[in-house]
Design a protein that fits this description.
This protein is mainly alpha-helical and about 160 residues long. The protein is about 55% helix and about 5% strand.
């Protein structure tokens, strides 16, 4: 098929006309889309308060008035305060101990282990842990497996648990 200059001009003229028509509709057409149904024909009936409560309770929801809710919150706060006092009597030092299951996989370094222990609030600094391991020459003796460690353990106990 050979392209002549007349067919090329005709094609270009067609594109120009189509673009002009689309531009005119865009500029001079309606500015907002209108819905086919009017608001008067669509009438939404809102359920009454009792109907809403029935529907929600039938689906397992518990409905409270604001007064009932405030009573429950007050009772819960009193119970927590009472339990908190009992716990203070039992645990005199008040120190929180974090426990975690540390999984060491093949390819992990002692830096990775230190960062994981720091993230789990077992140790204060992953970098200090790594330096201690390096000082002892154990950085290549990391043992793959899953270990239970807690923040109450000393650095020596953690190292002896995780390293060979």
């Amino acid at each position: 098929m050979t392209v002549t200059s007349n067919s090329l001009r005709s094609f270009a003229a067609g594109l120009l006309i189509a673009t002009s028509l689309i531009g005119a509709v865009y500029l001079f057409g309606p500015s907002e889309a209108k819905s086919t149904s009017t608001e008067e024909t669509v009438k939404v009936e809102k359920p009454s308060e009792d109907e809403m409560v029935k529907q929600l309770t039938s689906k397992g929801y518990v409905i409270h008035t604001e007064e009932q809710w405030n009573k429950q919150l007050a009772a819960m706060n009193e119970k927590q305060e009472k339990n908190g006092e009992d716990k203070k009597d039992q645990n005199t030092d008040g120190k929180v101990i974090y426990k975690t299951m540390l999984t060491v996989s093949t390819g992990m370094t002692s830096i990775d282990v230190g960062n994981a222990l720091e993230k789990a609030n077992i140790i204060k600094s992953g970098l200090d842990f790594y330096k201690e391991v390096e000082k002892r020459g154990l950085e290549n003796d990391l043992r793959p497996g899953t270990f239970e460690v807690e923040s109450g353990m000393t650095t020596d106990e953690i190292i002896s648990t995780i390293f060979k």
